[in-house]
Amino acid sequence: MWPKDVGIKAIEVYFPAQYVEQSELEQFDGVSSGKYTIGLGQCRMGFCNDREDINSLCLTVVHRLMDRYNIKPEDIGRLEVGTETIIDKSKSVKSVLMQLFEPYGCTDIEGADTTNACYGGTAALLNAISWVESSAWDGRLALVVAADNAVYSIGSARPTGGAGAIAMVIGPNAPLVIDRGVRSSCMKHAYDFYKPNLNSEYPIVDGHLSIQCYLSALDNCYQTYCKKVKNKYNYNVTLDNFDSFLFHSPYCKLVQKSYARLAFLDFLNTPKEEISRKYPELIKLHDVKLEDTYLNKEIEKTFINLSKTDFLQKTQPTLMIASEVGNMYTPSVYSGLASLLISKPIKELAGSKVGIFSYGSGFCSTIYSLTITKECKEESDLMKIISSLSYIKEEIGARQKVSPEDYTKILEWREQNCHVVPFSPQSSIQNMFSGTYYLVQVDEKYRRTYNRV
């Protein structure tokens, strides 16, 4: 017997308490006005100073989630971390998080870290779901953590950074139920974005290839998802079947292009006769080869315009955190889920179908879907998640603005002290959110110690 309605039972989001304004960054970088705000679709960018690292981000989000939902250490049977922010080539972040469980005698907890660029969080989530649905499941909950500090060297990619963490509880009888038997993946080999230099936090990025890989992964996953649904349920999937669609968000403008891409795929799957009737002016686009269209501006612009109304309804509400915090890497697509839950009325969310596209460079990608429970009464589990996320807007507004000059100095300082020991952080802890873990020091043996605000 399958456990019933396996999915997400709780969500906690954390982002650092400081940000840089993208419009000020445009002026500082000497680029045209609107390049980051309109061109990338980004308002602000959160970032870590020297007080936070991948361990502290994860400690913060897990501790906050357990406090907010009153989850006891003994309730957790699997704990898995997805991240690409590596500060140790051997010791997992999961093992660091065991500090929250060990004092209670809770050490029988499966799971470790999963790494592949921005996809690691999804891999961790799918592992957790598989555990709950397996013979190894012992009735306890799984806890999935996705966190990253996304920073770039000086240049055009720097404004696409961000930082943050998400923790999710996975188990049966969930209000956000992962649909079974239809998730679809596309895995290939590409050097679109990678981090081969272990002495630097910065990646090597091939921008054009990265976008091409992202859209090609989206094409593959969507087509496979449609086939699986057709085989399992005998109906044809289009965007009309989804009430919302979430995408991994390197920057918000790419998400709009991605939604338009799915509209283009639906167009290609529509019989030619129907296209002739509905969109005679577009008939010439019906026979194009998919692989020739990734940098085709005419197709991109046409389908952005055609899908704009649907995009504003189904995907724009998922970009609230992404536009304010930036690309959090592994938590990015799940920040979209949190944004959706706090941006729409519960009656509109209840019973709705949500499509999810997760992409990580290199590359790994999956499309899956979830169904939100119809139960939306005051005391329902869905209402509990939504009310538990109500702090997000308040914390976004309570962050401290940092000038581009100071932001650049902070990144230079991080750069100079990457893997330097012993190390004592310089930044103040005064403005950190309550409950945030911070780095106290790294000793001469590279051992890190943390305290909590």
How would you summarize what this structure contains?
36% of the residues lie in helices and 20% in strands. By secondary structure, the protein is of the alpha+beta class.
Q: How many helices in DSSP terms? A: 14
* Biggest β-sheet description: 10 strands, mixed
Structural class: alpha+beta
What's the β-strand tally? 17
Helical content stands at 25-40%
Q: Cα-atom Rg, whole angstroms?
A: 22 Å
Residue stretches low in confidence (pLDDT < 50, at least 5 long) are none
Shape: globular
Into which percentage range does the β-strand content fall? 15-25%
Q: Please give the alpha-carbon distance between the first and last residues.
A: 45 Å
Overall pLDDT, averaged? Answer: 96
Question: How is this structure best described in words?
Answer:
- With 453 residues, this protein is an alpha+beta fold.
- Helix content is 36%, strand content 20%.
- It is built from 14 helices and 17 strands.
- The strands form four sheets. Strands 1, 4, 5, 6, 7, 8, 9, 12, 13 and 14 form a ten-stranded mixed β-sheet that branches.
- Strand 16 and strand 17 form a beta hairpin.
- Helix 5 (207-233) packs across helix 6 (252-268) and helix 6 packs across helix 8.
- The longest helix is centred in the middle third of the chain and has 27 residues, at 207-233.
- The radius of gyration is 22 Å and the shape is globular.
- The model has no long low-confidence stretch (mean pLDDT 96).
